[in-house]
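Hello Y.,

Per our agreement to keep a running log of every chain we model this quarter, I'm adding this entry. I've kept the format consistent with earlier entries: sequence first, then predicted structure.
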Amino acid sequence: MDERRLRIVMIGPFGLSPKGTMRSRALPLAREMSARGHEVTLLMPPWHTPEAAPRVWQEDGVRLEYLSLGPRLPLLGHLATTLRLIRRALASRPDIVHCFKPKAYSGLSGWALWHLSRWKLTRTRLVIDEDDWEGTGGWNEIEPYPRALRALFARQERWGLRHAHAVTVASQTLQSIVWSLGVPPDKVHYLPNGGIPPAGEEAGETGDAVRRMYNLGDDPVILLYTRFFEFDVERVMAVYRLVLQALLSARLLVVGRALFPQDEVRLERLIAEENLEGRVVRAGWVYEEDLPAHLAAADIALYPMDDTLINRTKCPVKLVDLLGNGVPVVADAVGQAVEYVIHGETGLLTAPGDVEAMANAAIQLLRDAALRDRLGRAARRQIRERYAWPILAERLLHLYRALSPK
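Predicted structure for the entry above:
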């Protein structure tokens, strides 16, 4: 049995927030590696919050470092930041460098590390992680990037996925895309997301406390846990209006902050136009330690996803959070939702974009406590047995050991 203590460096293109890849995917894996006795460092240039750097700290045995961005000069600043990342990454003589997202700084770092490996200047093995599709049809289409950056990111993504010792992907659609780029299937490793730790026995009490905090009383509560970009806000409100026609006391609890502010503006406008200010509760951004209580306050959750390439390729952590905490879910049958939600067993699926079908499924769940309980228990069990971070980390550790120099 291979018991070597590995030195692992994970590189991100940005910090822990506001985008979630490093916080919700890299860090949980890093924690599990550290718990198994391995030396793990996360290196991140906090692109969205540059004032947070420089900073070095520890979380559950993982060393995290925010590196200052380079001088604000075209190209020179980006080059300086990339060189700093590579130097810090190689300083500990790591066995594995895992670059999360082959774009921007992590993409540039991967490019440099691959060439250093090819030139036999380092024995470090390079793993690239892909948890979203970034190029054409992906995030390039909705992020306000300049044209030159869109072209760079698309090129980086395709190059990076083809030039690594291994690739980890968060969804089966991404796995197919990477295969289509000519990457041998045995180099592509499916590694879906886990979620936040499930609530314990006190979840019911904390859920009641959240209900009291928002004056929800005993009303049926529908949870929308989201960052809004996955769907058309008007569609969700149309679903809620249909539910209200059948269940006048139903409340909508919205947890999360929009990635793009205009989506929240649209939601507020729709709430006002429908005179639903007293029926819809906006909790906003909720810290991870408070999430289980908010999830426990709900009777059911909606997980709408428009049928887009972004949604087909992503692996929705928030959906895993809901299922892992036993919340009965009605989800659009798009992408990874079809794997996580087994219709009639761990939740209910509806055709993407079908307002009436989603509303009817929500009404069915709200009226049937036994069904809610059965689906919630099965969902919690499935996540615990198949998608818990310790299980996923073991799969990743097996890959790391197979790659690392003996």
